[in-house]
Structure formats: structure tokens, C-alpha cells
Amino acid sequence: MSLTSSPEQPQPLGRVIMAVKDWVGRCGEIWVDAQIVEIKRRSGPTQFLTFRDRIADMSAQVTASSLVLDAAGPLPEGSRVTARIRPRVWERNSSLSFECLELQVEGEGKLLARLEQLKRKLQAEGLFDAHRKRRLPVVPRLIGLVTGKDSDAERDVVTNVLRRWPAANIRTRHAIVQGARSAESVMEAVAALDADAEVDVIIIARGGGSLEDLLSFSDEGLVRLVAGARTPIVTAIGHERDAPIVDLVADVRASTPTDAAKLVVPDHRQESAGVADARERLRRAVETRLTTLERQLDDLRSRPVLVDPTSAFVAHFDRLVHLRHRLNAAVESTLREQEATLRTAVGTIRALSPKRTLERGYAVLVDDRHRSVSAVDDTQIGARIHAYLADGQLALDVVEQTKKEISHD
Asked: Which of 200, 223, 307, 341 could form a disulfide with 140 if both were Cys (CB 3.0 to 4.6 A apart)?
């Protein structure tokens, strides 16, 4: 829509601005190629960016929601992006800005975004959890090594392992460590060593390189293979600043191949010194113990019972003899007393015996039914009674009864 105007009939500024806004609004959405030169992160849902043309010296202010930026992945300043934008005019100050509806990172940034998405996926599955990490063996019987053939990484690992532990055994599986077939080649080497029951630990080593050079070590298949391996795995890929995803699932990440060698085997010099120190401490402990035992033995030897072992027995023997004499005397005295008591008791029993009574001229009378006759009324005239004497018995006939009056005064 065009506006007519002249010095005599000028258009109001607001109408002109609204006309421009209407015209810009009809432009609709458009995809643009640009470079991010600034990102202003805020706590609210709307974020602010500055786009710049990659060739011409032109820039524009852009707004985007947090969801759009998060979906794009890492966005370092200077990233090349392809953005779906919509132009907007703010009538208050007649400024032009753009709203970003979709954002895609190109070049290295695109790779970073893709890797970030894979990281989030694997992290959600728990593959990076610390409890999955396994401890390395103290002294591995056989070390598996996956690396490029004749590479600096191979030389660094082998040299430092043998320098630290000359008796170490290394089984190397060479692999392609860069390029299209790299991930597949490394996976084959790792799988072969992991299936070898003699291998106690595996090192995956490669020197430094660009993001693209190390891309195969972020391959999802390789990452999952390492995460599920039976054997503990140490990764030594790139330098300290490089961090392929396989580092996050490995049991231990070494900053360099040399560092990996230090992690998988002890230093024989330090171990020898440690053994010597332990041997010395053991020797001192044994000497201290022997000294203590010798002192205790001397104390025992100085005791009277060990100086003259028979003295204690003699004293106890004399006491035993004395006690035996006392016991014999006590037994004899008791026997004599009991014998006298017994004789007295026998005399008393004999004195009270019916036989003694009969010997003194008395008799025991019973009737024909052997009932005791102790009173005149116990029989009658003409009855036959028997009299038991000390030396025999008599049969008697009762011919007379005379009852004696007994006074109870």
C-alpha cells in the first residue's frame, strides 16, 4: 500500500510507521544464513541474540524462546546458523527486529549439537552413572591395547607401561582411528579383546585431533559397546580439552596415552621401595616382639618356682604329710569314740533284752492261742498255759487263781 503525500498534505508519522509495519508483516517467515555474534541469556522465556551477515557488515537483533535455543544444542558465539525468522517492527520506536522460530547449527556447531543430543539420550539411559564404573586391576596379567598402527599413541603406551612394569604383557589390536571406517574398526578390536578371557584391562588410545578427527569415538555403537564390555576399559583419546562421548562411559578416562599407562600398571620402583619399607617395618616389628618375649621369658626364669622347681613341691609335700597324719589321728580318735558308744549301746540293749529278764528267773506266759497272759483275768482255772523260760518252756494247768489288789497311790 502506497501513501500519497506533499508538503501541503504530509502523512502522520504514526501512519507511516504502521504502513511500514504492515508491509514488513506481509513478508512472512524466511530462512536466513547468518552468524551468531552475541547471546544474552536471561531468566525469562525470551532470549536475545545478535545475528550478523557472514559477508556484508550488517547485523540484526533477534529474539528467540528458550525452547528454540535448547533444541539447537550448544551455541558458542561465532556459530554459523540457519534460522527461520519473522521480521517485526516496533511502532513505539520504529525499530526493526526478528523473531527466530527455528534454529539449526551448521558446520562444527552442527556436529556439537548432534553430539549433545546423543549425550542427553545416553545420560537419560544411565550409561554415564558412576556406579557402573569398575575398578582397574592392581597388576593386570594381560593388557589389551586398541590404537592406530605405528602411532605415537601406541609408542607412548607401550614405552611407559614397560618402563613402569617391565614384566607387563600387552596384546595390541590395531584399528583405523580416523575416517569413515574408524568406528567400525575400533569396535571390532575392542570386541575381540573383550572376548579374550586372558585380558584384564583394555586401553583405547589415540592422539589429539580436531572434532571431526575424533568423531568416530563418539559413535553410538562404539559407546554402547564400551558401556557393556566385560573388561574394564581406559580411554586415552586426544588431549585434556578433547572429550569424545566414549570417555563418558569408560571406566577410567586418561588425559593422554602416557597417563593411561600410569593408570593401568604400578611403578615397579615405587613398589620395590614399598616392599623394602614393608620388609623393614616387619623386621622391626619382629625384633620388638622377640625382645618383649625374651624379657617375659627372663621374668619367668627368675621366679622361685623355676629357679628351684622342687622347692614348691617339697613345701606342699610336707604339708600333705602333716595333713595325712592329722587325718589318721582324727579317724582313729573317731573310731575309738564310736566303738565306746557302740559298746555302751550294746550293753543297754542287752540289759533291756527279754532274754536277760528270763535269765533272772522270770517267765513269759501265753495261752493255747499264743496270746500273752499278763494278768489273772487273761486265763481261767483249768486252762492250759505255757511258760517260756530262759532255757526252755513248760506246759501248765491253772488250778487256782488269786488276784492281787494293786494300789495306784
From this structure: 200
